[in-house]
Amino acid sequence: MIYPIVAYGDPVLRVKAKEIEQDHPKLDDILSNMWETMYGANGVGLAAPQVGLPIRIFLVDTDPFADDPDLSPEEQEKLTGFKKVFINARMIEETGDEWAFNEGCLSIPDIREDVFRQDTITIEYYDQNFKKHRETYDGIAARVIQHEYDHIEGILFTDKLSALKKRLIKGKLANISKGKINIEYRMRFPQAKKKR
């Protein structure tokens, strides 16, 4: 089942998501539906708050980046088949030089901006079988994880922009929250209320 993706302006995107237990109701269905939703919207990552669930789950699949001719063969290889579920993730460390990468978000369609993030992360999380992992990633894989991790912390990539950039996109963000946007996937808009 494809969930509608929650649009910018919905309070669920600003909530610090809650941890879940291994016996969380319908967890397998939630994960299956999140994958279907993400692929249906051509995303490379999706966090539970983006489908209205304030729980600490996100998924990533960096395969679409693997064909980027601007990347080194080593980076392409790292991104090929990189598909993971992160449950109750906790960022341990972010290190290295900050670098800019043009980011977008399924909850904020048609806005892409350069965001600076550190190159290397160490993260602790449970996979879909509730096996615990502590792993270190760098480059684009780290970038996608950082972006999705921010979602479960109630942070959006637009929060990381300069005051000037925020002013420049303010009108676009307002239109997204009102549903004044053309997109090819289902969304749920906070201010698109029906008239009485």
UniProtKB/TrEMBL annotation:
Domain of life the protein comes from: Bacteria
InterPro entries per UniProt: Peptide_deformylase (IPR023635), Peptide_deformylase_sf (IPR036821)
Positions that bind Fe cation: C105, H147, H151
EC number: 3.5.1.88
Catalytic reaction equation(s): N-terminal N-formyl-L-methionyl-[peptide] + H2O = N-terminal L-methionyl-[peptide] + formate
UniProt keyword list: Hydrolase, Iron, Metal-binding, Protein biosynthesis
Annotated cofactor note: Binds 1 Fe(2+) ion.
Role of this protein: Removes the formyl group from the N-terminal Met of newly synthesized proteins. Requires at least a dipeptide for an efficient rate of reaction. N-terminal L-methionine is a prerequisite for activity but the enzyme has broad specificity at other positions.
Any Pfam family: Pep_deformylase
Organism: Aureitalea marina
Active-site residue list: E148
Cofactor: Fe(2+)
The family this protein is said to belong to: Belongs to the polypeptide deformylase family.
Single GO MF descriptor: peptide deformylase activity
Gene3D superfamilies, sorted: Peptide deformylase
Gene: def
Name used for this protein in its record: Peptide deformylase
Statement: the UniProt record of this protein carries the keyword GTP-binding: no
Coiled coil stretches, renumbered: none
GO biological process: translation
